[in-house]
Amino acid sequence: MKENEKKPSYTDGVRGLAASVLRDSGDILSIDESKLEVLAQKLVAFSQTNSPMGPNAGDLLSAENELGLNLFLDVVNFCYKDPYSGEEYAYTNKDGKVVKRATGLKEAMLQSGFAWGNTYDVSHMENGDWGNIVQLEQNPHFYLGAERGKRIMFFARILRDIGFSKASDLVEFCDYDVGRALFFLGRSGYFTDEFEKRSQLAVGMMNSVLVRRFSKNFEGMETLTVMADYRLPQVMYNAGLIRLNPGLLETLNSQKIIETGSKEERALRAATVVMGKRLSGVMGIPEAEVDTHLWMLSQKMAKENELTIPHMIVATDKY
After folding, report:
1. Which pTM does this prediction carry?
2. What are the extents of the domains in the chain?
């Protein structure tokens, strides 16, 4: 390797795959280069008036338990809108407030009082415990509801059997290195996804806890990609950056389920990763920061009914 040559990162494989998939997706979608700068400017303006830092409800937990909660949440962090019924997951908190979707699940786990940082405790969680935590009886349409609890327990058993008694043992084993952490999560079998959305999200969420509560951080956060989910491509095609063919546009507008692993799903996710990298270059910030701004902007646009083309619906365990 030459002296000034950049060392390949673990996530370069995701970028390479995304570029390849996008090249083969010309009959499904295309990129309108003229909209790249426009979206970049919108994200810059948005980021200047909207801080990603909100109240840290996790401070109600010990630092170790908050770290563990963010790890185990991402074992199952997917599909909060049932793809078949259209029903959304909703959690009723201790104050009687109903909190929906991913935020609701995180609050359910947060308020449970469970020792998420203790792998022994999590590995012995009963199905009934999980059902009570996430209020399964009140959420009969919660996609893979009981299955999620099993995944958390089985992943905890892997960590426990290796000898990791607490969540921070995993971080220390990976030597606070992003690539090593992603490799470990991928090999576990509980974060399987060619675009590695949930594993990267787990590292990002744990890193925020490490910085805030452990005065430490993962090395290599700048190597993370934009997360390939359902909402970020929606921002991009509503902004005109991703142009959809008539068939895919009709599928989205009619809210038909897109088959997981299909050319359409892979094309949308790949375009998100590729254009996220392009936005990173234009904005001069890491892709992980672009991801944060895109996600926050998506929430604002959804709240203000600016996302006129719906997001894709996929029955998946990847995102």
Report:
1. 0.93
2. 12-53+225-303, 62-222
